[in-house]
Amino acid sequence: NAGVMQNPRHLVRRRGQEARLRCSPMKGHSHVYWYRQLPEEGLKFMVYLQKENIIDESGMPKERFSAEFPKEGPSILRIQQVVRGDSAAYFCASSPKVGDSPLHFGNGTRLTVT
Amino acid sequence: DAKTTQPPSMDCAEGRAANLPCNHSTISGNEYVYWYRQIHSQGPQYIIHGLKNNETNEMASLIITEDRKSSTLILPHATLRDTAVYYCIVRVVNDYKLSFGAGTTVTVRA
User: Fold this and answer.
1) What CA–CA distance (Å, rounded) separates B82 from B75?
2) Is the peptide bond before A8 cis (omega within 30 degrees of 0)?
3) How many whole angstroms separate alpha carbon A92 and alpha carbon A5?
4) Measured between alpha carbons, how far is A34 from A22 in angstroms, rounded to an integer?
5) Which of A30, A34, A43, A100 to mutate to test the interface with B (most CBs of B within 10 A)?
6) pLDDT at residue A52, rounded to an integer
7) How does pLDDT run across A49-70, given as a tens digit for each residue?
8) What gap in Å lies between CA A52 and CA B30, rounded to an integer?
9) How far is CA A42 from CA A63, B11, B90, B99, B103, in A?
10) B95: which chain A residues are within 8 Å (Cβ-Cβ)?
11) Among A86, A95, B45, B96, which residue has the fewest nearby CB atoms (within 10 Å)?
């Protein structure tokens, strides 16, 4: 059973470009979560999605950031007009349901903005 | 809003048991204790979780005190590959969020 797959592992963007991060949850998991880890900081919750629905985006910056989890295909975290402060590791996690169900994380996408 | 307290770092010898403490004195009856670890450059890895009973799986054992105010994660035979940051997290039942603190940096030495 494949784990949570994230791609790309590394992404370099110039300031002002767009970054698209992809996450394929584990088979049978319909809940997806995105976390961000800034350099030398802890993991911070960004957004929680179920299929086609954003449930909680309270941790996601209001501007330039968006997330989706379409009926078909991976979840996408999109960052428009990237700035240097967006440089971080972005982790996706998935779970089969909410409640007594661990989140399983991918190995992340490391975004570097030059 | 830290709900857990962990030592910032600890060393242990390869082949010996590693006992990682965690204090969660304000834990509520509807909150689980979860443990994750993050090996350098990888995503967090789920280890184990429990509500009030002790738990064991192929990776580790979780011992929760009777008053639930603290717990210990035990890695029975530490290897060099267990070197990682270990996070103790309190999570409300039916809540979807995990709040990561600073964790304990565990270094396993040969």
Assistant:
1) 9
2) yes
3) 8
4) 10
5) A43
6) 87
7) 998 899 999 999 999 999 999 9
8) 30
9) 22, 21, 16, 9, 9
10) 98
11) B45
> What is the gyration radius of the CA atoms in chain B, in angstroms?
13
Interface touch B96/A95, C-beta < 8 Å: yes
Nearest to B74 by CA among B85, B59, B88: B59
Distance CA(A41)–CA(A48), nearest Å, equals 21
The answer to whether the CB atoms of B46 and A99 lie below 8 A apart is: no
Comparing CB atoms, the residue among B34, B46, B96 nearest residue A31 is B96
> Which of B41, B96, B101 is the closest to A42 by Cβ?
B101
CA B107 to chain centre: 15
How far apart are alpha carbons B107 and B38 in whole angstroms? Answer: 12
A25 Cβ under 8 Å from any chain B Cβ: no
pLDDT in tens, B11-28: 999 999 999 999 999 999
User: With an 8 Å Cβ cutoff, are A99 and B94 in contact?
Assistant: yes
Q: What is the pLDDT of residues A92-113, one digit of tens each?
A: 999 987 777 899 999 999 999 9
**Residue B99 near chain A (CB below 8 Å):** yes
Non-local (6+) Cβ contacts of A37 within 8 A are: A43, A44, A88, A89, A90, A91, A108
